[in-house]
Amino acid sequence: xIGVGLNCIDIALINNMPSGALEATERQFRTLLDAAxxxxxxxxxxxxxxxxxxxxxxxxxxxxxxxDISDLWNSHVDGIIVTGTEPRAPKLEDEPYWGTLTRLxxxxxxxxxxxxxxxxxxxxxxxxxxxxxxxxxxxxxxGVFECARVSDHRLASAIPTLLQMLHSRWNEISEDSLVxxxxxVLTRSQNxxxxxxxxxxxxxxxxxxGHPEYEAETLLLEYRRDVGRFLRRERDAxxxxxxxxxxxxxxxxLNLLRDRALSDRREELLTxxxxxxxxxxxxxxxxxxxxxxxxxxxxxxxxxxDQCRKAMQRRREYxxxxxxxxx
Length: 327
Description:
The chain is an alpha/beta fold and 327 residues long. It folds into two domains: 9-215 and 286-304, Class I glutamine amidotransferase (GATase) domain (Rossmann fold); 218-278, no CATH class. 41% of the residues lie in helices and 20% in strands. It has ten helices and nine strands. The chain has helices at 22-37, 56-65, 69-73, 98-111, 120-130, 175-180, 218-231, 248-263, 269-278, 287-317, and strands at residues 9-14, 42-47, 79-82, 114-118, 135-149, 162-172, 184-189, 193-200, 204-208. It is globular.
């Protein structure tokens, strides 16, 4: 349940998604955390990196619904979730929010029980923590991919041996780079590479190259956005159709539409695209795994918080026996 109480877990969601996706991302994580929480009480507070570019509407929404990032530095949250955002600069270090993001990484290591870093945020974290540089893909890693559980870590407890997970990214981190720097892979895909992984230092850092929080239609909306950008000549290449996502009839219709767009590039084709997508059949095949992952994460935080509370109580109750002199 999402709520408050003496045994509440405090989670900060640092939502850096573009302005148009702010509210959808909030909804996705609230829904996922609510499904995963069970009897654990979770209190969620929203933040964003202030340097992320925003539209006017985005700035107004952040101003009315989000806490200031300066409040986070002196807070006592138990865990944080950090989303990615659309890259603007060729190098992550040149993004306007890089300084605040690296401060957040250092802060999380010493002042949280655990943190989750998603997509671009995961890549930025690896670069800052270990100098691991992500490598560009020849084409977008886009769709729903079969992954295998390859770890017995408690965060992978009760996850199926084979699972479906959604990916949407232009870059990747090699497994060799992760293993050489002491990271533990939780799930991987033969076709999509490493899916989730972690590293324990002062705090438990959890990373997702995929998007377990996405809803059933999120990829559909992203694909429609990218086709629109092509038709409006905002991007040069026609986007690839997400793998393993649409039914066969929809995929066939989308391929025909792509052929038309490549020979006759005009924005009016968006109407035909909308009609095809409206009749498509998409379903969420990764939700049960997502809930399991986040339930394991919340329970880990709950246990860590409980252990710290008991340790503090023992220190308060400890009364050293005063030595009695003789003579």
